[in-house]
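Tokens for chain A. Residues wanted.
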């Protein structure tokens, strides 16, 4: 499975961005897709995930601000009310729930104050 992300960039605090990730290859093996992020000096953390049957989960840090959605083998992350604390490299992932085997190359999101 190959994952290609797009949509990162620079935005002012309070602004919005939409990330997109397209999966290709052996996509029939995918049960869940999601987004992680890693800020400088911090561990990679789960942002949101969505299963094949539409069950969604969010980290507490982004609940109410971010929305994950999925259309077959493409997953989206709509990010609203961004803060500088959301600055990170965002990675798309796919695989089994809680056991992601496939990762994208990452896309930088920078939120200026």
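Reply:
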């Amino acid at each position: 499975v190959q994952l290609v992300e797009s949509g990162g960039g620079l935005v002012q605090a309070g602004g919005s961005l939409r990330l997109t990730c397209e999966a290709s290859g052996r996509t029939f093996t995918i049960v869940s897709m999601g987004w992680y992020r890693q800020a400088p000096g911090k561990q990679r953390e789960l942002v949101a995930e969505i299963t094949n049957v539409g069950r969604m989960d969010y980290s507490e840090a982004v609940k109410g601000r971010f929305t994950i959605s999925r259309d077959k083998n493409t997953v989206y992350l709509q990010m609203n009310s961004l803060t500088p604390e959301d600055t990170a490299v965002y990675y798309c992932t796919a695989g089994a729930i809680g056991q992601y085997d496939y990762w994208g190359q990452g896309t930088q999101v920078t939120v200026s104050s």
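The chain has a mean pLDDT of 96. The chain is about 0% helix and 60% strand.
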